[in-house]
Amino acid sequence: MSKRVKAILVLLISLVLLPGCQETMIPTGYLPGPNKVYKGITGSWIILSVIGDTITGFKAELSGELIAVQSDSLYVLTEAGLQVLNKKNINSAVLYLFAPQGAVGPFISLMLFIPNIIGAISSPEFAGSFLGIGIPLLVTGITEGIIETGGNSKLKYPGRYLLEDFVKYARYPQGFPPALNREQFHIVNRDKI
Amino acid sequence: MRQRNLSPEVIILFIIPFLVITAGCSSTRLIRELSNPSMVSHSDLTKKHLKVHMKDGSLYVLDSLITYSNADYAEGYGTYLNPYRDIVKYNIDKSGIIVDTSFHIMISEVALLEANRITGLKGKILALALVGVPTAILTIYCITNPKACFGSCPTFYSWDGSDTTLMAEGFSSSILKAFEKEDIDMLYWTKLSGNIFHLQMKNEALETHIVRQADLLVVPRPKTERVFATENGEFFETSDIQSPVSCNASEGDCLDAVKLMDHKERYCTTDPKNLASKEFIEMHFENVPGGKHGLIIGCKQTLLTTYLFYQSLANLGNSAGYFASRIESGDKSLIKKVDNVWNTLGGIEISIQNQDGKWEKIDEIQEMGPIASDVHLVKLPEFRLKNINIRLKLTKGLWRIDYLALGNIDQRIDPIVIEPSRIIPACGSGTGASSILDGNGDPLVTFPGDVYDIFYELPDNSIDYEIFLKSKGYYLEWIRESWLGEENLKKAAFYFMFPRLYMKKDAGKFKILEPSMEESFWSSKYVKKS
Description:
The complex is a heterodimer of chains A (193) and B (530). Chain A is of the alpha+beta class and 193 residues long. Helix content of chain A is 29%, strand content 21%. Chain A has two domains: 72 residues, no CATH class; 90 residues, SH3 type barrels (Roll). Chain A has a six-stranded antiparallel β-sheet, with no helix packed on it. In chain A, helix 1 packs antiparallel against helix 2 and helix 1 runs parallel beside helix 3. Chain A is elongated. The N and C termini of chain A lie far apart (51 Å). The relative contact order of chain A is 0.20. Chain B is an alpha+beta fold and 530 residues long. Chain B has three domains: 39 residues, no CATH class; 87 residues, no CATH class; 377 residues, no CATH class. In chain B, 22% of the residues lie in helices and 38% in strands. In chain B, the strands form five sheets. In chain B, strands 1, 2, 3, 4, 5, 6 and 7 form a seven-stranded antiparallel β-sheet that branches. The interface between A and B is large, with 60 and 61 residues.
């Protein structure tokens, strides 16, 4: 295989793999695939930047399950228990509704591209042709990955969304129910249904 | 500085996926709808995949919810969880089997109903499937059978009135210098515009083409007639062209496929037990006027010869060069053996039924090549019959017949020979056109992906001409590395010494490849990257 073909190959594979490198620290069960969303039993996972000290402006990052959005506060269930945060102190927030699909298209296209790579290696004289045949496939996969950035797998505040838009993705979209024992809240294994 | 142009193939390569994506795909979006319980109360409904949020914070995750018009409750199947999301009860298991009685849900205790919908996911899968599956099939096919891919012969393109399209292939049987010969192809669909005629010559295969001559043979074209050429290079004005009234082959009526030269071809697959097995096509003409007649046949070969040629090279493997050099050195026995292989397959034999009902062989068309159909004129003996039966005998699965017609042969015409006036290599092609392709000087040598624009000056732009291409040269097929793995000199010897037996022995292998060969072949032209 020529150096040029190798370089093209490395570039194409890198382009395909890049979108899949996003890592999050979200517990597995809280980031369901889009097809499993309708069976979810919890609120969505939220990562917040909160002003911890109004005088120094010190910011803390907090993550957990969104329990409820009230008129002045957010209920978030963290590993340390249920937290009630004043909306005014929330600097920014990202709400994860389902597993981002940005890497799916590129990944599938790369898998389907494997025969082309095998063809290019086994028949070096046709390397360009074999890789060329697969270009539409890779372009489709990568473009799907790019288009996916316009999806709503995560909602960002501030920006396109207000905290009020997060209401329906909370565990209690109707608001925090009265008479619940705050000590009983715990991180849930969403896969149990 | 060289101008860099993207070829149409490359542009299409990128446009198709975009069209597919934009037509069928948007980003994946979760649409969550929350509704008031009053939406379902007092109506007969069954809803699937709902979540029922209760005022106390508990939750029903339901596969189905049933409501009744005169009831203040609903029934459901699924799972009930307390506000802390511990499972309290379920009445349907993971495999969907009902294991308990339905939930009795008081509507007055319901806070919200939640429904979720995902959009954009199916479109993405569809887009990937549309592009990915054919790509994977084609690629796997080409890996397993590279001999069926990436092949062709010298190809010639010209203007057909709406686009520059494939019109002819040159000297397809000239696989070595020893087999070099002239080839005359009718540019049947070509349309003239002005007195400069433009022909594009491409090398779309892994081959070296040695082109010695690419002249035009032009004859003034009468308004109601056409001019056709016979196998031995005679040109005749042909009038009163008529299609057969019936045409039958092994599959039955095939008239629709052959009555016009329209790329709609009559074709059948090879015999599964013998690649050289013959078949017949019989046609009937009625009310034939008196005079001299000729049968007009528009045809090309299938990829059977390409397959056999590539397979013979694969069998010879590293020794292919040695045997080629022996042929080039004048080894007549080897030349004869190569000819024997092609003779085993044979051409298209034309017979006419005489007054006694016996078939008399008239002629045979031998021209090889699977890329572009050529039109041939076969002179028929003079006869007094008003109704004529003509029969073609040909190898099954070897020929694609596009056109069959009968015409009155009028006067013989000598064509005007026009040599190229200008030859311009396309960007990145060749080393410059030092040759003028006049048949006397150095030949023009082209390599895979080379494209040459050849221009001719027609004698008079007020006359409509019938255009023929007279090409001369030969080509050298490149042995692919992957073919070397198939080297088998015993098989090669068997192929050249007992071609009739080989055609029987190899039939099964070819039959496996036959259904997808055409598609793979046409999808795999060699194009030089700009």
